[in-house]
Amino acid sequence: MSLQGPVIVIAEDADPVLVRALESAGAAPVVTAPWAKAATAIAKQVPAGLVMPQAADAPTAKVLDKVGQALAEHAVFTPVLAAPVEGLRDHLRDALPIAADASCERIVARLASAQRVRTLHATVVRRATLVAAPDVAAPDVDPDTPDGPDTDPLDDATVLVCGRGRTYPGLGTAVGERLGLIGALGIETAARYLNARDVDGIVIGDGFGPRTLEAFLTALAEDPRFRDLPVALLPECPATFDAVRLPNMENLAGEPAAVVDALVPLVRLHALEARLKRQLASLDAQGLVDPTTGLFTIAGFLRDLARAVDEAKTRGQALSIARFSFPPTLDQRASLDAARLTVRVVRNVDFACRASDGSILVTFQATPLEKAHAVARRIASVLRHTMLAPADDPTGRIDASVTLAMLKPTDTVETLLARVSEPAPVAAE
């Protein structure tokens, strides 16, 4: 993907080599501006990206506030890449880090990755505007525009920490204090988690040999699902691996808390991308998909369930429904994580929603009770082994209580749902 323009390079003395590299990658025009004129340039150009490459620059708080205010005027996310500048993070929390000695190729690759999120955000904004607009043919119809979450994307973020050395416990603690945490002592375990669930970042500690580390990084770079993942690498990057292949990888050092602080903006961006994808799916489904979980909304689920019940009775097909209930003390992050995992494990012919009490309802179409029992047990097992542990018990696992019911000839939607309202345990394998 070529860069979008215009791009503004904010520096007292912009590097002409960097400017040429951005122009060669398609970012036309590339505008240079000193810090004192940065806010004016942002307001005038409506940039598709900002690059602040000089760590030695020390703008005042007033200048940084003006830059932040100018960016806030834009409806679409504008990526900001910045070398370490004192006080910058207090005013531009979403600024993506770049090393002070980062090559032009790495800056271009990271900006291109961030601009993909910008394009996705612009698409969501445009679709939401179209959905909200009144239909000329039916002006009295009030369109159902799904409301996306307005919380910090970090509230949804999950980071995988892998390592075997002395840094692993500290890294796990530092990540767990701010983000959802998945721990893996080995590369094989880490790969299994990456394939089983959504992850917004990876922290790789010490304890792995150069060949193992290079093989893992190569696998990430070759898979489009993981290529843009933020990666904090504590060991030295293997000399034979081209770091440009992972645009959001950073070699970080220091205390675990400092490593997490440096990675957080990249993790927030990846979590924002995941959120935007769910919002886009919701808009495409005309509001029947919950933009928070990716499952059906309750209204959408009930509508589809009524249709499925009618079809099952008309055609004489089996239909089963399951409720997965969780302990009432389950925290919000783990509860939402369970719902998002369910999106990945339900069959294409089935549909599900997250109820107001946090339980998950899944309808199994053309599925008799015996087969539904096996499918529900498999889903419960995946949730037990994959979903985030509760915040007060980081090493614990959550067992969902499952209730199953099969459609009877005399059932209505209400009576079918009533029969799964009280959980009765179904063992997970």
Automatic annotation (TrEMBL):
InterPro entries: Rev_trsase/Diguanyl_cyclase. It comes from the Bacteria. This is GGDEF domain-containing protein. It comes from Rhodoplanes azumiensis.
